[in-house]
Design a protein that fits this description.
It is built from 31 helices and eleven strands. It is mostly helical.
Length: about 750
């Protein structure tokens, strides 16, 4: 809306209010009558305002219509249902029509979103995903806030009790640091806090410490990781994976050492937390610098994210006996058995996978040259950093200071949001069961299944037509696509109370002890995961697929299975009462993106059964790698102006292949839908063809704003490129986009050099 129209609406509201207030009969009206009158007038004003918005938008789009020879004649008629009006309003509110779509389609589609969106103080970015996620959490909050009802399934009351304990800030403050210090003191204490009185040097071992803390519910991957997962080359079996550690700060920063500002902030955070727990500051600065250098050494021995994309190189089988011979610095059978539940045991003949053998080649020398006190301080630091989220405001405020440096967030989120988010993460199955029973519509599921089938067919057509594949590889790819499973909406087991009761049978929650209850959930989940070692694998395990209340979708390569779950099937992504070009542009793209992951640089290493197997012909593989390199180099050539950093086209390659292939498959599927069903009406106020509206819908999926600190972190460490490049690059590679918007060859959105994998 232009300035003049904004003023007109403002004046209209002011004049109407004066007329009402000054009328002789006004004073004789009851309060209820006055309220109804004012409400009616304001509703009338709202209608007028919407008409003005749409009118101005039509005028602004008129100039584009005159220059666009591809605009459909059917665009003269528009859809005026409530769904279409809502969609038009949403689209117009995000757009910046002053931008030429052939110059920068992201700014054209999202310019006003970027200008008007204010990031909440407790968040680091704001997108359609975060907006919808907040709405899901608001709905989940209401469900969790309900009174405890003995007639409800026990797991529902467990989750409500954990939510209640999280919301009880006064009790948490009353407990202070004691819930954590009680645990640490019982297991030997934090050396930097105890000072010279820490006398465990002769008897303390890091293996014993990890075992003890793991049994209390803490992570066991601070030194290195031991987990149970699906075998890479036999997806019918579980196997023990031994891998490099999960570090307290991304190794991208740690490997820079103290010259990196984030590493300096991390070090100050370590010192301050130790001081809060009673350490002398000068001692903390010295001892925790040693511990930081130990963590930096772990980072330098670890593989980078880029290197870890080669899944084949991370599959290295050994018996425990062979591991013991190669790496004799711990007793492997004893250590792993101590981490496993008591009913699960291994011996030296157990076959395990070592993900990064070079890490363990170097690890023994690091252990030999690092004092026990340094390692003990490091472990207690990691435990303290994790625990602070669940404890007093004193710790959480210091945690916030650190997070501000890392991500730019200025404040904590509201307590209800944090507590609901925590339940959503720790009680995935309960959260999903509560949500889907209240908020999911079956008609949505049927419509999305139909869309998925259409998109799958178009991807098959692409596989049949690409000229660089040999016939044997082509057939293997088609077979994999046919075998790919799908879960749309939710697993039916979430409606079965008996299954929920059985799953959570051994879990206990104390509403008066938030921290200890959270640790109980950790122990419960770890035991469940480790108990899988001897159990058969079901490719579509409902318990794995039950996290419905996270706005996302996924592809699981070892199961060869996509998930498009309930919480994302709403809002901008999907609405059943609006034209299909909007749905294909949004959720259709998401579906196609996940399907394509089965054929990206990482997912393509697995066959139709989810096994790590090279099903590619040598010449075809060579051609594929050339195409992938084109895309990796293309993304890496982009320099983000806000950070002056190049995108990482290698680490983000899989997501970029999925973005480029996904938008193409969804577009083709929509074109086929139009062929089968006829053209659709346009939207009011948007003089764009249905095809153009497809692109607009897809682009507006990625409207987003970032704090500078988070943008830097995302470019350096995230598997996805920042959102604007998820529009600019794929669209510029698509000749269909340039055709639909009549973009000249050589323009920003229609470059001569394009990259394509699928």
């Amino acid at each position: 809306m232009n300035k003049e129209n904004r003023v007109s609406v403002s004046i209209m509201a002011s004049d109407t209010e004066n007329v009402i207030k000054n009328a002789n009969w006004w004073s004789r009206r009851s309060a209820l009558e006055k309220s109804l009158i004012v409400t009616s007038v304001l509703a009338f004003i709202g209608v007028i305002a919407l008409v003005l918005v749409l009118s101005v938008a039509i005028v602004k789009n008129k100039s584009f219509e005159e220059n666009d020879s591809t605009a459909s004649s059917t665009n003269k008629s528009v859809c005026l249902t409530s769904g279409c009006i809502k969609a038009a309003s949403h689209a117009l509110s995000n757009m910046d029509n002053s931008v030429n779509p052939c110059d920068d389609f992201y700014s054209y589609a999202c310019g006003n979103f970027v200008k008007k969106t204010i990031i909440p103080d407790g968040q680091s970015w704001r997108t359609e995903f975060t907006k919808l996620n907040d709405k899901v959490l608001e709905k989940l909050r209401i469900l969790l806030s309900d009174k405890i009802n003995s007639a409800d399934p026990r797991p529902f009351n467990l989750a409500k009790n954990l939510y209640k304990s999280c919301m009880n800030k006064s009790l948490i403050e009353e407990h202070g640091l004691k819930p954590l210090t009680d645990i640490t003191e019982s297991l030997g204490g934090w050396p930097v806090v105890l000072g010279d009185s820490w006398d465990e040097e002769s008897t303390w071992t890091w293996t014993g410490a990890v075992i003890d803390y793991s049994k209390k519910g803490f992570q066991k991957d601070y030194i290195f990781d031991v987990s149970v997962g699906i075998s890479q080359k036999d997806s019918t079996k579980h196997i023990i994976d031994i891998d490099q550690p999960q570090l307290g700060l991304n190794l991208k920063y740690l490997t820079n050492g103290l010259s990196d500002n984030l590493v300096q902030a991390y070090y100050k955070y370590m010192v301050d937390m130790a001081v809060i727990f009673g350490a002398d500051k000068s001692r903390a600065e010295k001892e925790l610098l040693d511990s930081l250098n130990f963590e930096i050494a772990l980072a330098n021995m670890s593989w980078s994210n880029e290197k870890r994309r080669n899944v084949t190189a991370m599959y290295n089988l050994f018996t425990i006996k062979e591991v013991q011979q190669k790496y004799p610095y711990i007793s492997w059978v004893e250590y792993i058995n101590a981490l496993l539940p008591t009913n699960v045991n291994i011996d030296e003949n157990e076959v395990v996978s070592i993900s990064v053998p070079s890490f363990f080649d170097n690890f023994g020398n690091l252990l030999e040259n690092t004092p026990k006190r340094t390692i003990a301080n490091y472990l207690l630091w990691r435990i303290t950093a994790y625990s602070s989220f669940f404890l007093s405001d004193q710790l959480r405020k210091r945690q916030l200071m650190y997070n501000t440096v890392v991500s730019g967030k200025q404040d904590q989120m509201p307590r209800w949001w944090e507590c609901t988010y925590m339940i959503n993460e720790r009680f995935k199955i309960v959260a999903g069961a509560l949500y889907v029973r209240k908020h999911f519509k079956e008609e949505t599921k049927l419509a999305v299944i139909n869309m998925t089938n259409r998109i799958r067919k178009e991807f098959e057509n692409i596989l049949r037509k690409v000229t660089w594949m040999d016939e044997q590889t082509r057939q293997a790819a088609i077979n994999k696509l046919h075998a790919m499973g799908q879960l749309i909406g939710y697993p039916e087991e979430l409606l079965d109370n008996d299954k929920l009761e059985n799953y959570y049978e051994k879990l206990e929650i104390d509403p008066n002890s938030y921290f200890l209850s959270a640790l109980n959930v950790n122990s419960f989940e770890t035991d469940y995961a480790f108990n899988k070692l001897r159990k058969p694998i079901k490719k579509t395990d409902w318990k794995t697929d039950a996290w419905l209340t996270i706005v996302n979708a996924s592809y699981r390569p070892k199961q060869n299975h996509i998930e498009i779950l309930a919480s994302i099937l709403q809002g901008h992504f999907f609405t059943i009462d609006r034209p299909n070009y909007l749905n294909y542009g949004a959720i259709g793209f998401v579906i196609a993106h996940e399907l394509t992951h089965g054929f990206d640089d990482k997912g393509g290493q697995y066959d139709l059964n989810g096994n790590l197997f090279n099903w590619w012909g040598a010449v075809t593989k060579s051609q594929y790698l050339k195409k992938a390199k084109c895309m990796a180099d293309q993304y890496s050539s982009y320099v983000d102006p806000s950070t002056q950093l190049n995108l990482n086209g290698v680490y983000t390659l899989g997501e970029n292949i999925a973005d480029n292939g996904g938008v193409k498959e969804s577009y083709y599927a929509y074109e086929k839908w139009v062929h089968d069903n006829g053209p659709e009406l346009g939207l009011p106020g948007l003089d764009l063809s249905p095809q153009q509206l497809f692109w607009l819908s897809n682009a507006q999926t990625w409207c987003g704003v970032y704090r500078p600190e988070f943008m830097k972190s995302r470019i350096l460490t995230a598997v996805h490129v920042p959102n604007l490049y998820r529009v600019r690059v794929p669209f510029s590679n698509m000749k269909e986009f340039s055709k639909d918007f009549n973009c000249p060859v050589g323009s920003s959105m229609n470059p001569i050099h394009k990259c394509e994998v699928w």
